[in-house]
Amino acid sequence: MSRSRNLTTGAIEQIVSILDGWSGKLTWDLLIQSVARRLRGTYTRQALHKHERIKRAFILRKQILSTSVGTRKVISPELQVAKDRIARLKGENGRLQMENDRLLEQFVRWAYNAYSRGLDEQFLSRPLPIINRQQTP
How far is CA 11 from CA 1, 33, 79, in A? Predict the structure, then answer.
């Protein structure tokens, strides 16, 4: 495996998806190993930790796992697959809710700052200019 340089948006999305479905003990070292297998490249704890989405997803998953210790009673393989899927979806839902809350907070902050500069909703709601990508300067 090669040492990877930069985390792309797609790689970050895959890593938070790994965290959403994580079960069992969670450490940065175990996450690094899982990411290396999934993305075929290695990252350091520091590289993963500096990305806010990954850091917050890690913390959230760690909290969820710490409150659900000892709740695994397997009845059948099919039921276990369903339970694992539900747990992954709950983790993803919790992370997305947290990310949505942060974006709403950011929007409120931006709206206040725009208002304090005299920018009204009509000005802020103007469509973006059309970019002609065929034109060369």
Answer: 16, 14, 30
Q: Give per-residue pLDDT as tens, 10-40.
A: 899 999 989 988 888 999 999 999 999 998 8
Q: What is the mean pLDDT of the chain?
A: 86
> Tokens 């920018």 map to which residue?
119
Contacts of 14 (CB under 8 A, 6+ apart): 35, 38, 39
H-helix or E-strand containing 42?
A: strand 41-42
Give kind and range of the element (H or E) at residue 56. Answer: helix 52-67
CA angle 127, 9, 3 (to 5 degrees): 155
Question: What predicted TM-score, i.e. pTM, was given to this entire model?
Answer: 0.61
Structure tokens at 70: 């000892």
Letter string b/e over residues 116-133, b meaning 16 or more CB atoms within 10 A of that residue's CB:
eeeeeeeeeeeeeeeeee
**CA trace torsion 69, 74, 79, 84 (10° rounding):** 30
Residue 42: what are its φ and ψ, rounded to 5°?
A: -105, 145
Q: Where are the domains of the chain?
A: 2-124
